Amino acid sequence: MLDQIKGLHHVTSMAADARTNNNFFTDTLGLRRVKKTVNFDSPDVYHLYYGDETGSAGTVMTYFPFPDIGRGRPGTGEVGTTVFSVPQGSIGFWQDRLSQKGATGLKTEETFGEKRLNFAGPDGDGFALVEVRDDSRAPWTHGGVSEDHAIRGFHSVAMRLRDEGATADLLKYMGYEALETKDGVTRLIVPGGNGAGLIDLETMPNIQRGLQGAGSVHHVAFAVDNREKQLEVRKALMDTGYHVTPVIDRDYFWAIYFRTPGGVLFEIATNEPGFDRDEDTAHLGQALKLPQQHKHLRPILEQQLQKLDN
After folding, report:
1. Which of 7, 109, 119, 230 lies at a C-alpha separation of 20 to 30 Å from 155?
2. Of 244, 233, 264, 216, nearest to 64 (Cα)?
3. pLDDT tens per residue across span 34-45
4. How many whole angstroms separate alpha carbon 150 and alpha carbon 228?
C-alpha cells in the first residue's frame, strides 16, 4: 500500500463559456482565480484555475472552457459531484446566496452525518457544499464571502461507477481506507491528508455510461509532495499493471495520468513548484500566462481568447 498520496490536488472540468465560468467561481462562490493560462494541447482554449489565496493542493478547481461545446451526459465512469468544505452553520447563508445568484438544483440533505447543500454549476456541473467542523485551512476572503462562510477547499469527490470493487481496491492500494457504506455509497479516506482526503464511490449498475462535455469532470488529481514521491507512485502503479503516462511538466506541477478500472481518469500531481512560480502571490491569476511552446502565439491568443470580466 502506498503512503505518498495526501488527498486531492485538483479537479479539472469542462465548460462552454469562459466568462460565465469565471464569474461563477470568482463571484458566486467567492474563490480566487489563481491562474489564467491555456490548454497545453489546444492553446486557443483557456485553462482557468480557482482556489484559495495561493492555489494550495486540495483547493483548486480548474476548467477548460471550450467555446460552444455540447452539454455532457451524466452517467457512470466519471466524477459526478465535486464537494467543497464550508464552516458549520453556513449552509443557510449559501442557500440564500446561491438562490440570489440564480444557481439551480438547490437541495439540502444530511449524508454521513453531515449537513449538505447540492447545487448545479452553469453547465449542469454537480456540486455540493458540506459543513465541516474545524477545517483549519485558510479561506480566500476577497471574493465577497466572509471568513465565517467562505469555502475552505475540497471536501470530497463522488465517483459514479457501475461496480465499485476494482476502483475501491485501487484507492486502498493508493493509501485510502474504507470508512462507511450507506445507501449504496462507500466513503474512503486517506489518513493524515491535506484536508481534502475523502472519496465517495456511488454504485449505479443500471445507469448508462457518461458522455463528456460541458459540465463534465475531465479528471481528478491526487496530491504528492514532490517529484521523488511521484516517481515512487508511478513505479508502484506500473508494477501493479497500470498503464501510466510519463511525467509531464504542467508548469505549476508535474503530472502523470492513468485510467481507472471504473473509467475515471486519475492524475497524480506534485505540490511543487506551485502557482507563484511566474507571478507573485499578490497578483496570481491576473496576467495571461503561456506555456513555453505557445509563447510565440501571444499576439494571436490575446485577440482570440474571450475577455474575462475580472
Report:
1. 230
2. 216
3. 999 999 999 999
4. 34
Residue 196 has pLDDT above 90, yes or no: yes
pLDDT tens digits for range 210-238:
999 999 999 999 999 999 999 999 999 99
Give the predicted TM-score (pTM) of the model.
0.97
The x, y and z cell numbers of residue 12, run together, are 479539472
CA dist 155 and 11 (Å) reads: 12
H helices within 226-292, ranges in order? 227-239
Count of CB atoms situated within 10 Å of the CB of 143: 19
CB 270 within 8 A of CB 224: yes
The topology (CATH level 3) of 8-304 is 2,3-Dihydroxybiphenyl 1,2-Dioxygenase; domain 1 (3.10.180)
pLDDT value at position 261? 95
Interstrand relation of 126-132 and 265-273 (parallel, antiparallel or unpaired): unpaired
DSSP secondary structure letter of residue 30: -
User: Quick check: 257 and 266 in contact, CB under 8 A?
Assistant: yes
Domain coordinates of the chain in residue numbers?
A: 8-304
